[in-house]
């Protein structure tokens, strides 16, 4: 039937030798940055975005997607071996994973993480393949009011899921929206907020903003208080799980996958929330809750599956609606646009080979990741001994060279410095950078759809609540904020996001 | 701060929001605002700027009588100065000096922003990074930038 034909088209693209190579490079790099603390997939994808310009669209997107989900695998290795989350969503894995490693069970912990992730990744990819086409069809009927409502929903959801103060998250979104307005007005062509700099007419460069607030700001923060890190486990032995271990992880993996798949679709860092939610669920359901925090294998299996499932399903809003669920997806939007493709419901029909190729490559990528992460674990352990002090100069350089090479525009490089300092100061004073980037990407879209909707309705603002789909979406957005400020949920959020700093 | 009656975190972040919001809102006033039917280029930024200013005031006010509980703000000035300096230097000289010298100087200075790096280590790192970046970006990816720029007479 249709699905099989589509998937076989996808596999024919994904199995092209060049694309396999890009997929491999992607997952390899992803694992690498996932393993290394202090550099995450967001900064890496931002830096590599310019390079992908010269690749084919399928190759570029396959590679970038690989970096993202590859980092989810790599992050758990670091969490288990040195009790430092290599990636924010693996913070929970560190709790029990590190305890297992201390007891000499690093091997089973790593195997659990890899197998759980693989299972969850496979399921997430299948869900993406099944749900994306009908959603994209539905989205084709969306007009300007619906898109406006959808963007508002996405932005407000990201607040509900962000760390810390809701007001600050809201402020960061609005600041991001405003920064997105720098440049020529889309309708009148009037330059706005350019301070007379001609290079700013086309707007602030997205890559500069991203590497500034995620890459440079993070480096400045790490330089505050430098210390070496210890790799406790020098060699990992005995990777295989016992029969008993297998029995214990099956249910957590299934539950984690289900939770992660659902939460991943939500905008605003669903994969982080998913791993926390799964951990607390496992703890509550366990017959031995006292083991949690002291090396319970369920505490590794659940969250690791959850964050990987979420990593795959977070592609659903991007591929069907063109709306990024979180900063990494926002960068993927940038990658689509660099390739001359507008992400959204039309991609599936206009570029079926690209669409299905990306999906098929995710499955192939997940297979490669298991192979990369289990047999080659010794290599990653060695890698952890590269000190941060040798890494960050390379990050700074790559950021500068990457940004400069997109348009040969030196203002793009100056923008990195500006956003690095801004991001650092805001981060240091309790504001998360992720909502800012989301606002920055969605700002121009929000303005365009709002203005178009108002022109169509001849200035009648009730258009947003008289059209059923947009009314529902806006209702959900209000609900998300209301729920987020309810006292009981506020307390929960505090518990969930304790890992802050 | 010896005695603080407010949260510095809230005051500073709120302050940044107010300044940014006010800038965007005031600047937007100089553009055509338009009507709800035909919004001009100033409409959205004016509205959002006002919202951001309001949010900033609320955030800052929320920190009143809520002393800082967590660790002090201890920036590494050397790190900030060198890293930001490197980025600015890169932008200012990449066209004039050319790829190889700029990358070498930049990576050397960036390495020195960590107190743990000795000058010798920084030189070695700079050489490695220069070779690596030249191979990847200029030779591998064909980035169009001269190895040595016009300022060096080449």
From TrEMBL, chain A:
Signal sequence, renumbered to the chain: none
Keyword Transmembrane: yes
Keywords: Membrane, Transmembrane, Transmembrane helix
InterPro entries: DUF112_TM
Domain of life: Bacteria
Domain DUF112 residues, every copy: 20-438
Bilayer-crossing regions: 20-39, 45-69, 109-132, 144-162, 169-188, 200-220, 257-279, 323-341, 353-380, 386-406, 413-430, 464-486
PANTHER family for this protein: TRICARBOXYLIC TRANSPORT PROTEIN
Protein name, as recorded: TctA family transporter
From TrEMBL, chain B:
Classification via InterPro entries: DUF1468
One of the Pfam families matching this protein, by short name: TctB
Domain of life per record: Bacteria
DUF1468 domain ranges (all copies): 12-146
Chain ranges passing through the membrane: 12-31, 43-62, 82-108, 120-148
Keyword terms, alphabetized: Membrane, Transmembrane, Transmembrane helix
Protein name per the record: Tripartite tricarboxylate transporter TctB family protein
